[in-house]
Write a structure and sequence with these properties.
35% strand, three-stranded antiparallel beta sheet, alpha+beta, 78 residues, 6 strands
């Protein structure tokens, strides 16, 4: 088995705090607010984001939600 380190990458992200309009603009309109949840169009299909989840723009321009604890463990402010 070999060990690997994740390459340092700077990403863009917005935390979902009820700011639907900001997130909809961030993801280029590919978001929907339904039943108290944010639905984000991702490469894997629509995914739900709960309040306080982070919406991340990946290195290829894709979007996906990330739970706050995982975001905090993975990313530092740039």
């Amino acid at each position: 088995m070999a060990m690997y380190r994740k390459k340092p990458v700077v990403i863009e992200a917005v935390q979902f705090t009820g700011n639907f309009d900001e997130i909809e603009k961030f993801v280029g309109g590919d978001a929907e607010f339904r039943d108290g949840e944010l639905i984000i169009a991702t490469l894997e299909g629509p995914l739900r984001a709960s309040p306080n989840d982070w919406i991340i723009k990946g290195i290829k321009g894709e979007f996906y939600p990330c739970k706050p604890d995982i975001f905090e463990a993975t990313y530092d402010a740039a």
